Amino acid sequence: MKDLEQLTSDVCALAHSTCKFLRKEREHFSPSRVQVKGLNNFVSDVDKNAEAQIVASLRRMLPESGFIAEEGTAGCSNERYRWVVDPLDGTTNFIHGLAPYAVSIALMDGEEVMLGVVHEAVADECFYAWKGSKAFLNGKEIRVSEVATVETSLVATGFPYYNFDKIRRYMNALAYFMQRSHGLRRLGSAATDLAYVACGRFEAFFEYSLQPWDVAAGSLIVQQAGGRVCDFSGKNAYIFGQELVSTNANIYEEFLEIVKKHF
């Protein structure tokens, strides 16, 4: 396999060109291009075309790799190296002309994430890291915030849009954070939420009903920026377990205990 730093650089360039494509498509986008995959779950020809372009480029970079891609362009595979791709994280935002929306690309070696790139298209911000590196935003090192308590934290979350089995527990958690933090934000792009934890704009992010392509890249960037990532039980099943907690280093224990209490 190529050197990880060089491979990450190549993926950043690919994500940058894909975001340029997304912005161009948004200029003349119409609702007629949208298809419904499920309850409040949308896809457009832009998602599909972007994924096809990304997959073709990644295949050239690492011919021995497989793919876990949201729109199924490459199918699912069991190769040792697997790219985890979301060509447009925040499709609903994109449809409505709302920021943020992002490209998210990670490379896994077995169950371990080796590199992650999240490029938010509207602000043209590229967040990235690889195993053993620092975390970066457009070439500059980033770190999670130093905020020490949940009470003084800004918390991000994502609303469930099809699985409402935990809705009461989730609403109780929201009520808690509304009253005992600096506030809650719901941006509509989990990959961007994680990137914003990594650079200190948020102190914490939690959500359930997540997919690997939502979180694989961002979770590595957070950790390489000095933050913490786990599932709702405090374990490591956050990539395939459909639930994730991410925080800076200082509030991790406090925040996780609150999530455990409610879920």
Structure summarized in a few sentences:
With 263 residues, this protein is of the alpha+beta class. The chain has 2 domains: 4-142, Fructose-1,6-Bisphosphatase, Chain A, domain 1, CATH 3.30.540; 150-262, 3-Layer(aba) Sandwich (D-Maltodextrin-Binding Protein, domain 2), CATH 3.40.190.
Summarize the SSE layout with pairings.
Layout: H1 4-27, E1 34-38, E2 41-44, H2 45-61, E3 66-69, E4 81-89, H3 91-95, E5 102-109, E6 112-120, E7 125-130, E8 135-137, E9 140-142, E10 154-157, H4 167-179, E11 183-185, H5 190-198, E12 204-208, H6 212-224, E13 228-230, E14 243-247, H7 252-262
Helix pairs in contact: 1-2, 5-6
Task: Explain the overall architecture.
The protein is an alpha+beta fold and 263 residues long. It folds into 2 domains: 4-142, Fructose-1,6-Bisphosphatase, Chain A, domain 1 (2-Layer Sandwich); 150-262, D-Maltodextrin-Binding Protein, domain 2 (3-Layer(aba) Sandwich), CATH 3.40.190. Helices cover 35% and strands 27% of the residues. The protein contains 7 helices and 14 strands. The protein has helices spanning 4-27, 45-61, 91-95, 167-179, 190-198, 212-224, 252-262; strands spanning 34-38, 41-44, 66-69, 81-89, 102-109, 112-120, 125-130, 135-137, 140-142, 154-157, 183-185, 204-208, 228-230, 243-247. The strands form 3 sheets. A 7-stranded mixed sheet has the order 3-4-5-6-7-8-9, sandwiched between helices. Strands 11-10-12-14-13 form a 5-stranded mixed sheet, with helices on both faces. Strands 1-2 form a two-stranded antiparallel ribbon. Strand 8 and strand 9 (140-142) form a beta hairpin. Helix 1 (4-27) runs antiparallel to helix 2 (45-61) and helix 5 (190-198) packs parallel to helix 6 (212-224). The chain is globular, with a radius of gyration of 17 Å. The mean pLDDT is 93.
